[in-house]
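Forum > Structural Biology > Help requests

Title: Can anyone predict the 3D structure of Glycosyltransferase?

Hi all, first post here. I have the sequence for Glycosyltransferase but no way to get a structure on my laptop. I'd be grateful if someone could post the structure tokens.
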Amino acid sequence: MEDTATAAPHVLVLPFPAQGHVTPLMELSHRLVDRGFQVTFIRLVSVPDGLADSDDRRDISRFVDALFGCVPGSVEQLIRETKVRWLVGDVNMGMCFEVARKLGVRVAAVFPASAACLGTLFKVPQLIEDGFFDDKGFPKRHGSFEIAPGMPPLCPSQMPWSIDGPAEGQEVGYRMVSRNTQAARDHAEIIVCNSFRDAEAAAFELFPSILPVGPLFADAALRKPVGQLLPEDTGCLRWLDAQPHRSVVYLAFGSFTIFDPRQFQELALGLELTGRPFLWVVRPDFTTGDLSEAWFDEFKDRVAGKGMVVSWCSQQQVLAHRAVACFVSHCGWNSTMEGVRNGVPFLCWPYFVDQFANRDYICDIWRTGLAVSPVEDGVVTKEELSGKVEKVIGDEGIAERARVLGDAARECLGEGGSSRENFDRLVDLLRE
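Reply #1:
Sure, ran it for you. Structure tokens for Glycosyltransferase below:
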């Protein structure tokens, strides 16, 4: 996009380099452009992440180490070149905030997940003092605990830095989260998040410095969603057009979730068992091990005409479609907000980090969905999936609560709504 007004305020928008972070910050960028800003992000500029093209970016600890070592220097150079007045940065890139401040650039922080998640991170020093964690982020207590009534209970082993693998990976994650959160508190003049007041009333009451500006989505008369890192299959939208109203089971598990072959097969067979039309997003790297391609091809042949499998899709457009009856989701916050805004009931299947707390929002606080229950060895069986899909779709109470929450989300974004007013506050500050 070319600059249209050289006098327009110029901001640099910096996301953490993962799909669930790029999407909301790109959508926030579009809103800023609509208000007359120049944004270095829309005019796409890249900075290296410190890894080679062949490296596995799902190795979180290695990825984080590379980011810490490489990105701040690259961002400093970019700031000098672009002469921006503001850095609008993902809290998860807080390692760059001090660099910006030293160069005289002001900082606004954006948290792409829930206010409850960020507020909990603010509380970590107190939680360490209270004996829930040691000073490296490892749990010292079992069971769940509650920050405040109305917020999801938290399990010490399911914190935002909790990842599978060696202990040093946990330590790397904890250091990153702690450093970035502190940087946001020290250097950001405003902190906004991709949520809305009615969704997290207790969290916003406890943490009034966190301002909701969401749900962030591709608006402007269904402007095409932006910031997708994988190629989208647009044919699924035409397929949805041919399906009955509220009939389709939509399944998508984000960009990080990985299933082993046994779980993958149980999921596929559970879909077949429902007898319902389904749209299933299966990334090329969605499963590991020895899943037989011939087996999967036979499955797709059996369900042809009833189900559709794609490698990626425009999720916002899918969830807004009249044919979707429920969303089987990993409960990433972007997916959660997209489902909520469209009034879609959930079947929750969390994978890691904050997704368990998001599941608790959906199932226990908003009561707009149910969760799968694995058997003893951790596998969700085909019978469990099929049965829970039927329960979710058949529950009129869930459907009504999902509709009401979706209405509340849209009201917050409308004229006089709290998210709209908070965004106006951000815009006014960025113009100073």
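Residues 232 and 313 are 4 Å apart (CA to CA). The chain is about 45% helix and 10% strand.
Shout if anything looks off.
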